[in-house]
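Quick start: what a row looks like.
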Amino acid sequence: MPFTASAGQQAALPTNNGNGTLTTATSLTNSAVTGALSDITGVLGLGVHIKKFGTLTGDCSATLQISVDGSNYLDFKTYTNAQIALTNGFYDFVQVKAVGARIVLTPGTMTGANGLNTKFLI
């Protein structure tokens, strides 16, 4: 069955403008807690991948921060120690409409060469 719609109707259809790109990994440690900013303009859903390296202490957590104006970042979702300490990491998909995203590590008492590698699927 053919799809027929006017140009106006087609323009009004919601679209996901994400390009399916997996961002370069950002390493977060107790000395570098703020991840790289990723441009998520036009994306309706964001894939978040977090994988630990080394040994995390029980008081670590990670927070997804988003920005709607490109300069102010708000906490959007917090990932618990139970989530970020999984050996094989984990993947989360969140619906968000913003211009920027980053992950911030709360290292707690963690020291040394331990931390998180984070990526976004945009």
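That is the whole record. The mean pLDDT is 88. The chain has one domain: 18-121.
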